[in-house]
């Protein structure tokens, strides 16, 4: 690796690079229809096991070089966390590890580098992300970000959906080098304190950072230039003092947690906040929060029986919600497919299970016999699904059988 400077005092850092075991496509594919509209195919399902490597960086230039290199392989992604003892043991035995923090496969690591994901709003008429992306990037930084971002060289990357609709729609990833390393909680607090117009999820320790450009069928990429570095006299953002208590108070006033999770006593209360109207908290955040509330308040033995009702409630609330200018009914439908909702609900169930285990790991738990039998069936089915994913059988159909009764 060639560093930005020969000065040994320059701060250095690492990027964790993961490669999917079977070469799955970890980027979106867009197909153009005869009527000019686009159909988007999501990333391949079942990306579960990864090989691991770390790359050394010491500033924005080496960061850019590593990102561009990794982006050439559509089966690679990066995360903020570093490899933990469990992950290292798994790699030593099999060559692969899961992308998990809860089991110790990966552990938190404050980083000098950070990704800011901006996927909302529009620049003024006349800006064109397809023809002159650098102009739109400069406008976003100048108009949407505070003083510490001004005059700093940052890497920019257009997101997978850039250029498919309005040419002035803001669909950007900004990769920056920071004056000091920050972890997940400080990044979330900085976002709230400074009002940064970014998605908090990319601050999570094991959140995937997908790099490869999307592929196109039936048409050329409408955005021929997808990467660049802004001009600037400085190579790092000077991180301000971050007051986490202040951020928590701001979040509480907004009716969300530090992470941006929408607060509500029930699923219904949360879904009542969906949409872009007055008091609305958007769509994605509300949907995720409603799924998490359902997973935490519903007995696990009732998950299967109430899952479809939850999906129906989400769809009804979303379709009846107020939309801002530029958000179409089709955009809302993108949140509501069975594939997307089921994936999110599965994630909520897993997180709820982890939280229950963490809250009272030594508590005695008693369950009625009938419920215990149902839970046993559910557990056995989960085990079968686990081994199905682990083996990665190349078939579009499930090869395991679910149980209807206790064996």
Overall mean confidence score, pLDDT: 88
Approximate strand percentage: 15-25%
Shape: globular
> Could you estimate the helical fraction of the residues in percent?
25-40%
User: How do the helices and strands follow one another from N- to C-terminus?
Assistant: EEEEHEEHEEEHEEHEEEHHHHHHH
User: Which residues sit in consecutive blocks of at least 5 with pLDDT less than 50?
Assistant: 1-7, 361-366, 393-407
What is shown here, in short?
The protein is an alpha+beta fold and 407 residues long. Helix content is 35%, strand content 16%.
How would you sum up this structure, described in words?
This protein is an alpha+beta fold and 407 residues long. It has a domain at 1-253. Helix content is 35%, strand content 16%. It contains 11 helices and 14 strands. It has helices at residues 60-70, 85-94, 133-144, 184-194, 244-254, 267-271, 284-297, 303-320, 329-333, 338-359, 369-391, and strands at residues 13-20, 29-32, 38-41, 49-57, 76-79, 82-83, 97-98, 106-107, 111-118, 155-158, 172-182, 209-210, 215-217, 227-229. Strands 7-4-1-5-12 form a 5-stranded antiparallel β-sheet. The protein has a 4-stranded antiparallel β-sheet with strand order 9-11-10-14, sandwiched between helices. Helix 4 crosses helix 5 and helix 7 crosses helix 10. The radius of gyration is 22 Å and the shape is globular. The model is unreliable at 1-7, 361-366 and 393-407 (pLDDT under 50).
